[in-house]
Amino acid sequence: MQYTRPTSVNDAVSLLAEAKGTAVVLAGGSDLLVRMKGGFVEPDLIVDIKSIDGIGEIRQTADGFAIGAAVPCAVMGEDEALKNAWPGVVEAANLIGSKQVQGRCTVTGNLCNASPAADSVPALVAAGARAAIAGPGGNRTVPVEEIPTAPGKTSLAKGEIIEAILLDKRAPRSGDAYLRFIPRTEMDIAVVSAGVNLTLDEQGVVTAARVALGAAAPTVLLVAQAAEALIGTAADEDALEKLAAACSAACKPIDDKRGTVEFRKKVAGVLARRAAMIAYKRAGGK
Amino acid sequence: MSGIAVSTTINGDDVEFLCQAEETLLDVLRDRLGLTGAKEGCGTGDCGACSVIVDGRLVCSCLVLGAEAEGRSIETIEGMADGEKLHPLQEKFLEHAALQCGVCTPGFLMAAKDLLTRNPDPTEEEIRFALAGNLCRCTGYDKIVRAVQDAATVMKGA
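Above: the input entities. Below: the structure tokens describing the complete assembly.
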């Protein structure tokens, strides 16, 4: 096993593209090291990306925010501008693991680990976040929901890495929120979860919305019917009822020790409804 | 022996070591440097017994590679006391009997130190959330929480 620490994205891409055998990216390592210890992955090459210039920073750009692939979630929680603009994304990122894990884990890693129960992913999908990818064939930017393709699998090709997660600049009167159900109060994996992001007009009517569910299917679900239920309304009881029903109907969950299909379907609707109410308030709706 | 040459700072001292790619920082601390304060509980980042502070961030050293220590500044439990003088958190853990078997204690102390650095006056709820990544199977946590509260009071007065 070899360990390498490139200082540029190009070098990281070349190392990954030219590697013989299994090459893995190391940022926070909170998934990778656990998978290595469990024997689920035996890398021939570990590419530690943390020495790449700027990859550990949150940048404010003309278009919004670029969260570098090696930014620990704890740092997201300390960034006031990011928290003000995207409180739902930050609250989701800050739910991952303990303080110890927060100091290391990244949203890019959470996305690339491709767990259906990843906390930050539904919030990022609801936020319309995009992944900036560098690879041997050049750079591309894709919506984050296109990255996980199945549990533990991504659409990234050999040699490709995500450099940053991009979040748009906020339109006025916008808000987002993320909620998950766990049987404990902390340190647990989502049984089911929901992220909602919306924008209001001056009268408090929803003009744009995105609703995403986690742990409700093999990959994160973007539920268009739930968003449509909100658009054109002031998130009133009737709209919230329709949103909840659309979410429950969209779920394709599994039965396991943490929750049954029936429970997950029901709770997906409940959480989406509550998240929508929080997002609506954050957007300035009454 | 061949390996990755790493230069780092541990508890203020310059330290150099050789390690293999797959060795964790916890392995290096315990097996190569003789710093056995950090404990291996689970080895998967769930129990916090191996907590150390790297560049001001509390982390599980079992989920950090030894090679990643290059150029970093690491604080371990061995650096907590000032010579023979215990840190207020250590004193209060003793006073409140906030330990029994002691395996989790170095991790709790590092996590509590990190908390009080960031938040010198935490509520009980904040303490419990901050220490949620540290598992103790002996004390039932209450004595630990009291010890941290008491240490915070002492440290504010200092």
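Note for the figure: The first strand of chain A starts at residue 2 and ends at 4.
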